[in-house]
Design brief:
Structural class: alpha/beta
Strand order of the largest sheet: 6-7-8-3-9-10
Order of helices and strands: EEEHEEHEHHHHEHEHEEHHHEHEEH
Distance between the termini: 49 Å
Helix content: 25-40%
Radius of gyration: 21 Å
Number of strands: 13
């Protein structure tokens, strides 16, 4: 069975269809083991093409992709794909199979018995925030968000070292989408997989990514760095325009109240838990027309306060 996490390397990876311009043009980047790399960019930037090159759904024209130092072209394609979790926008669950059977798809190919698959399915359902009783239900009885969680559980069933996610939350309404993003980050904190995550939403990229690869049209890499570094210093005008003129506000979403030096508590001030992002805290102060905010612990007890100037500073 596959292991914990794997380093992924794109080395001058290029995909060209016929004599046309490249869809992915000499893409070179390294995703360290256990990190989330988000591919983001405009339409025609080659995000999904780059993702599908990894599991050889699309063949490389030139260059190389390596997983833990081993070229994907040197591996049996069936074994390669079994060792890579794959989550897509439309989920792709088998409608005639129960949730448990869907989750057990790859483990069955590895020869796991029914008892092992049943236990693994229950563990994973709990891990993705669903009751184990969902194991006997069919996909048609689930909401879009629930199907997406089952799809994630299925991708994790064989404990793959690498997870590919192609706009997994884009078809979900905004409220459920935010919850799924939070659940995914919580889950990643537990399983620590190497993840390549495609999205067209720069805010989602900033929220979920340890590193962001911004691709310009034609599949050329414009910038590859941490969200903080990209927001602080875009490499050129294209990147600056793409991340938006409000990038200073986006940067506030990368830090929480827990990161700040707190002042003495103030009676009557609005309150938020310490895990709240600075962006959400500033939004509350503006909405409440207040200058000071009380910061609380997980139980709602006051820890101290911050001012609007503290957030902006």
């Amino acid at each position: 069975m596959p292991g914990q996490a794997a380093e992924l390397v794109f080395d001058e990876a290029t995909k060209r269809y016929g004599d046309g311009d490249p869809a992915v043009d000499r893409l070179s980047l390294t995703v360290p083991a256990g990190e989330i790399c988000v591919l983001v960019g405009p339409s025609g930037g080659g995000k999904t093409t780059a993702l599908r090159l990894v599991n050889r759904l699309i063949p490389l024209t030139s260059g190389e992709i390596r997983i833990d130092g081993k070229s994907i072209d040197d591996q049996d394609v069936t074994e390669l794909r079994r060792g890579i979790g794959y989550v897509i926008q439309q989920v792709g669950l088998f409608p005639h199979q129960t949730v448990e059977a869907n989750i057990g798809t790859v483990p069955r190919l590895y020869g796991r018995d029914k008892r092992w698959i049943r236990k693994r399915a229950q563990e994973l359902l709990e891990l993705v925030g669903l009751d184990p009783s969902y194991a006997k239900r069919y996909p048609s009885s689930l909401s879009g968000g629930q199907r997406q969680r089952v799809g994630l559980a299925r991708a994790l069933a064989a404990d793959p070292p690498l997870l590919l996610m192609d706009e997994p939350f884009s078809a979900i309404d905004p409220i459920v989408r935010a919850r799924l993003q939070d659940e995914f980050l919580r889950l990643q904190g537990e399983v620590q997989k190497t993840v390549v995550f495609v999205t067209h939403d720069v805010d989602e990229a900033i929220k979920v990514g340890d590193r962001i690869a911004i691709l310009r049209e034609g599949g050329k890499l414009a910038q590859y760095d941490t969200p903080t570094a990209i927001l602080a210093k875009p490499s050129d005008d294209f990147v600056a325009r793409f991340v938006g003129a409000d990038r200073a506000l986006k940067a506030l979403a990368l830090r929480s109240l827990d990161d700040l030096q707190l002042r003495a508590s103030v009676d009557g001030a609005p309150s938020l838990p310490k895990a709240t992002t600075l962006r959400d805290a500033l939004a509350l102060l503006i909405a409440e027309r207040a200058d000071t905010l009380t910061v609380t612990d997980e139980n709602g007890s006051p820890l101290g306060s911050v001012t609007r100037d503290d957030l902006l500073r």
